[in-house]
């Protein structure tokens, strides 16, 4: 039996919830399960103004629309991230300014941000890689001193904390993903947190999300006519997805605990091996809440990573690489970046390997992976 890299957590309750939605006939957006999910998440995150979207990609797009990014205005972000972090800026005519990540936790290197700020800079998008928190105190300080917005791409950061605060709740906006590959998922889905008390901004987010209409005001019986009031799009997930997501959210503590157990077991194995072929491996953090989204090993040479993946594959264990840094992807080069702009990132993606981690992993599967990691590291 193949051990996959990832597997969505199985929740029987999801079937019951979806059946309820189908029977109710209210299969569109913003019904019973959307509000249940919102209630539960806002409480758990200790935050307000959470709106569900059809993806984190859409949540990021919504955030960029809410800051009213003008043509050619710049947004700083790490090159080592998923394309969605950059697409949202280009989609609104902005310019992407890539920067570097820390060599260990792969979060944005805060010492390199300020040198990239110009009069055209409007925002910083930070990515909490693998659930590890970026240094939010430093980032918010830089942003405040330079009058910039901070958007947290917390696609991988749900339920991880920074100094006791949930990721996604610290910047001006927080964006989450419920994609199939994330800890808590509904296939395709996302959410945005608007960390502001500005009623106008919150209302605008609702308008944009609802095709540029004032449907929210109409539903709340604040206006007589439902009409076009802003430039918008369609970002609302259907109740079918929210019904599935609700079952996942209700299981979030189990998912969390199980992932953390697997994560810690990998840490222990690698702590024991002390291999000189390895440059770094995931350490998690000291925070009480760490979501164990990714366990990665950075090898000293790309050849080691190749060999390691091959040996695991021969044993039916799927281990994967991760992001091709955006600056040296096809689009990044088209934007004028050069392969050698960020040498660490340039080599990182060939040296980094992610190990299987999913809540439903059995003890038998986990033991096999542990054993084969040890063998593979000896052999490469
Ligand atoms: C998964 C991911 C996204 C995209 O999330 P979707 O919900 O699939 O749109 C964006 N940024 C990062 C860092 C991600 O890992």
From TrEMBL:
GO MF term list: dTDP-4-amino-4,6-dideoxygalactose transaminase activity; pyridoxal phosphate binding
Residue numbers annotated as active site: 182
InterPro entries: DegT/StrS_aminotransferase, PyrdxlP-dep_Trfase, PyrdxlP-dep_Trfase_major, PyrdxlP-dep_Trfase_small
Protein's GO biological process: polysaccharide biosynthetic process
N6-(pyridoxal phosphate)lysine modifications at: 182
CDD domains linked to this entry: AHBA_syn
Keywords: Pyridoxal phosphate
Gene3D superfamilies: Aspartate Aminotransferase, domain 1, Type I PLP-dependent aspartate aminotransferase-like (Major domain)
Pfam family name, one: DegT_DnrJ_EryC1
Family of the protein in this entry: Belongs to the DegT/DnrJ/EryC1 family.
Listed name of the protein: dTDP-4-amino-4,6-dideoxy-D-glucose transaminase
Source organism of the structure: Vallitalea longa
